């Protein structure tokens, strides 16, 4: 390899490793893989088993892209996806997601807004491929890329704000989503999903929390997921009352109940991150 070719390769790698380049390139690739997988699942795999197979293949593709980019371009180990401790953190996230949304339902029932009228079908509890792809793809994109790269330069608090706003804005195209729902996703649910990464420095707890929240909302309690069409879940339910408390077409995510419950969880996790010294300062303060 001659000197001129070697210098061109070094220049290309410098461009690829620039924070803005990494942010845009990896975000685009992950978004494309996630979106393509979900479209394929919705279009060609209506039954549960093929849907799950395609979902698993899409998740494998996402992991391959993410790890390959980290290894060949960023030249770093992927500590946020290491396997030791994965089961524990994923399990805690799943319990948190199920527990937090179930708490919202119980509050709504006490207030007389939510009523369970019976069992719909046990078959409804089978997860779809999309239920696997969405939390993995979105956590890699918004926490593994947007949050992590902004944190490298501007520190943890700026990264929290930017990644949460970006997370909220991407839901604006969802059918049935409202301005209040988008705002709640950006202001409350974005921080709720970023906080586990800040505490553990890994993605597993956030993936579990994200997946269990969506699954419990749609597959257990038959609710609208982020403004999507109201799903068929385990229970036949009715949810009636003022939009402030029900979220309207945005689903319970847009309700005051879910906002207060999720905000409480976010604050507790962020306090834990501060106490453990996990808030990364801006790069210029780290160099000082």
UniProtKB/TrEMBL annotation:
Keyword terms, alphabetized: Membrane, Transmembrane, Transmembrane helix
Domain CAAX prenyl protease 2/Lysostaphin resistance protein A-like intervals: 130-215
UniProt xrefs under InterPro entries: Rce1/LyrA-like_dom (IPR003675)
Transmembrane segments: 20-41, 53-73, 94-116, 145-167, 179-199, 254-274
PANTHER family: MEMBRANE-ASSOCIATED PROTEASE-RELATED (PTHR39430), PROTEASE (PTHR39430:SF1)
Protein name: Lysostaphin resistance A-like protein
Organism: Floridaenema evergladense BLCC-F167
Lineage of the species this protein comes from: Bacteria, Bacillati, Cyanobacteriota, Cyanophyceae, Oscillatoriophycideae
């Amino acid at each position: 390899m001659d000197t001129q070719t070697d210098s061109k390769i070094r220049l290309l790698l410098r461009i690829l490793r620039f924070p803005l380049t990494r942010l845009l390139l990896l975000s685009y690739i992950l978004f494309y893989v996630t979106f393509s997988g979900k479209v394929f699942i919705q279009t060609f795999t209506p039954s549960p088993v093929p849907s799950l197979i395609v979902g698993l293949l899409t998740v494998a593709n996402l992991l391959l892209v993410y790890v390959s980019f980290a290894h060949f371009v960023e030249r770093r180990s992927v500590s946020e996806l290491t396997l030791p401790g994965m089961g524990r953190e994923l399990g805690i996230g799943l319990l948190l997601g199920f527990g937090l949304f179930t708490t919202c339902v119980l509050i709504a029932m006490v207030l007389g807004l939510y009523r369970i009228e019976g069992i719909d079908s046990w078959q409804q509890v089978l997860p779809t491929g999309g239920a696997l792809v969405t939390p993995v793809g979105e956590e890699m994109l918004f926490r593994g890329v947007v949050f992590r790269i902004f944190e490298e330069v501007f520190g943890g608090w700026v990264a929290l704000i930017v990644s949460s706003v970006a997370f909220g804005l991407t839901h604006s195209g969802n059918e049935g989503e409202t301005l209040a729902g988008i705002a709640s996703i950006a202001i409350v649910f974005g921080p709720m999903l970023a906080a586990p990464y800040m505490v553990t420095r890994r993605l597993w707890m956030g993936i579990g929390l994200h997946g269990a929240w969506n699954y419990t909302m749609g597959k257990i309690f038959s609710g609208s997921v982020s403004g999507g069409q109201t799903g068929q879940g385990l229970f036949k339910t009715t949810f009636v009352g003022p939009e402030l408390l029900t979220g309207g077409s945005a689903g319970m995510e847009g309700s005051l109940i879910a906002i207060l419950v999720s905000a409480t969880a976010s604050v507790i996790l962020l306090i834990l991150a501060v106490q453990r010294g996990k808030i990364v300062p801006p790069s210029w303060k780290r160099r000082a």
